[in-house]
Amino acid sequence: MDSSSRSMCNLTQVFHFSSGNPRIEETRGVMHLFSNDAHSSHLPVERKPLLCVLRVPNHMTYADFCQFCGSFVQHILEMRIVRNVGMEDCYSILIRFDEQKAADTFHKHFNGRSFSSLEEETCNVLFAADVHYTSSIEHTQSIPASSTEQPFCPVCLERLDQDTSGILTTICNHSFHCSCISKWTDSSCPVCRYCQQQPGNSTCSICQSPENLWMCVICGFVGCGRYKEAHATRHWKETQHCYALELETRRVWDYAGDNYVHRLIQSKTDGKLVELNHHCNHDSDGCCSCECGTDSGFSEAILNSKVEAIVNEYNELLTSQLEDQKMYFESLLQEVEEEIERETKEAVEKALCQNPRLMKLKVRLDKCIEEKKFLDDINDNLTSNKEIWEAKILEIKEREKKALKMKDEKILELEEQIATLMASIET
């Protein structure tokens, strides 16, 4: 190794990374990144228009990152999402620019900048010295689509050309135009639905076994299957929560019906959705055991009716399960309330029995409570009597007003009669 190679090794950091769906094919490699010198503002001399954004949080989707660096998308030739070894809560992005000036400007603009005003994570941008792919592990015998060249974008069906538009390769090795993937707000891949937010290592809640795990879709209990200690089955028998999700295959099992509740599952071979328990083999002599050979319009009508029946079935299952869940939790809540009330009463009685002074205070408190209740009753009676007497007083006042009015009218009438009599006498 010459002196220049040794100096480059001293100035770079080594990061091991991987990409691809671990169930299908996983590609591993090593990237050498120039170190950021906090005491120097000079950029690396041997830098290339290749950058790496380290430790991007998992909750940030591809569309979010494209929007974050939207002003530089037109200068980006390729972006590749990789997963750093030992960092499960974040991922990294390798970005290749069309010119060195754009890469330098991107580094100056985004290095140390927060992804958003509501987050503490900052954008850590480093220049990449070199990237090597060390191995490729295939978990199936078939060759996945990600290992072959993809000349067309799966979204817009246009040719993937770096000169016309930037290309983004997801963590599962599917390539898209940056403009197309920026409209995809989900964190999963639009082709295989592989999600970059992988769940953590789960274990059985009782025996801590990490294998053959099932999660209750009603309350979230995680237990091992019947091939281990069967804690998931025991949970169903105790709570009657009959639906459980297998964490490895994402399939839902119905303990009551003793079968899977859905018709479509994800194939382990290529990650596509296939029909569960489909027995039509399409022999060379022709398909005669299913609706494949019937008229297309009739087949479509049958398919629509099946889909509608499945939707209705799922709605009924969901409604019944929610009702059962409501009754179950209401009964648990009632039991807890009764238990708390009983324990409180027992604790008060126990405390009173242990302390005679508290007993005397309790007797005095009960007496005061009874007196207060008696006074409250008297107050209520007085209040009601007050309203009655106020009504009677108003009635008497009205009666007096009427009597005074009649008296005044009588006096006026007598005065008129006297005046008439005096006039007659004078005459």
TrEMBL record:
An annotated GO cellular component: cytoplasm
Annotated ranges, domain UBP-type: 187-280
Q: From its record, what is one biological process in GO terms?
A: Ras protein signal transduction
**Regions annotated as coiled coil:** 379-424
Q: Which SMART domains match?
A: RING, ZnF_UBP
- Does Transmembrane helix appear among the keywords? no
A Pfam family found in this protein is zf-UBP
Which protein, by its recorded name, is this? BRCA1-associated protein
- Origin organism is Anisodus acutangulus
Start and end residues of each RING-type domain:
153-193
Which key words are in the record? Coiled coil, Metal-binding, Zinc, Zinc-finger
Q: Output the Gene Ontology terms for molecular function.
A: ubiquitin protein ligase activity; zinc ion binding
Q: What InterPro entries does the annotation carry?
A: BRAP2/ETP1_RRM (IPR011422), RING-H2_BRAP2 (IPR047243), Znf_RING (IPR001841), Znf_RING/FYVE/PHD (IPR013083), Znf_UBP (IPR001607)
